[in-house]
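User: Quick one: structure for sequence A, then sequence B.

Assistant: Sequence A:
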Amino acid sequence: MPESDHYSLGAIMIYMLTGGNLEHVEKRYVPNKLDDRIKTFVRALLQSDILDRPREAHKLFKELDDIRRDVFNLSNDITHGIRRAD
């Protein structure tokens, strides 16, 4: 199920954003110092109910790319050439 993969992505993001703190991963702790869009994105991935998690990977990837460009002031589009896997 893609939704479980999305949960894993959220857990990996917490791991990376907290410098490898496994306790934060276990507690699903998203650091407060992050931009609100990043926090919202990660928290959506970590919803306990699988039906509450994002379902469409291509939309999720686009959202993450938009956040990446806006928050870090980057201009390149990493979604170029990405196709939906229907």
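Sequence B:
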Amino acid sequence: MNQATAVPTDGFAYVGPNRIHFVEQGEGRPVLLIHGAYGSGSEFLARNIGKTLAQRYRVLAPDSLAHGDSDAPEDAAFYSARARASHLAAVLDAVEIEQAHVIGYSMGGWMASAFATFHPDRVASLAIGGWDVVRGMYTPAAAWGLPMVTSQILNDMVRRDRPDLIAWLRPENEPGLCAAIDGMNDLEGLADGVARCPAPTVLWIGREDLYYDAVAGFAAVNALPVIDLPGDHMVMLEEHGAEAGRRIIDFIETNAGA
């Protein structure tokens, strides 16, 4: 049976007291696929983008801390950008992979930028989606007339507009989830890290995404290519994920050969 159609296999990585769950599917060069807030590795791998990538690559999709089957500690120190980068490094270490193509969306884009900043030598290529690496969630905050986006604000919005995305949450894990979301406001040094990343880098974004203008501006200043697709932050991923996957594959094959 082709690995891309097989049931994903599970694994665990350990960082200090915390256990990071991940799923793996496919064969070929390794890809680290990083989901957004309220998602999981299994959920992201099951989306069209994950299925598309797993047809060509060995895809490792971790559950971010406080998501999926990973631990959900309450201590904010576990959710800094540097800590998040260490979690991704631990997943690669668990399967004895030194370097991978790194693809992240939304919160996963923030984590990908952190990994490129703190572990640039482990990045074969970098694809950051749905995320402003300079201002992060301060960009939608400005559009909404807020000083910043906190976990309480975002959780309330998701419960109101997309309750399906948060239906998995258990009460005992909510403090950890809040710490995870608030940790996304740790942006120091990440934009410079992405700009200096020696690996081929592409940004991918929906044309109606609140982040679009910021992403396009950062790309122009740093001479980075942009994959732009129809839709807003969620529609692009949900309706055009397969196309995003194909275009990211084209970027990898063209710019980061075997």
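The two ends are 24 Å apart (CA to CA). The domain at 3-252 is CATH 3.40.50.1820 (Rossmann fold).

User: Thanks, that's what I needed.
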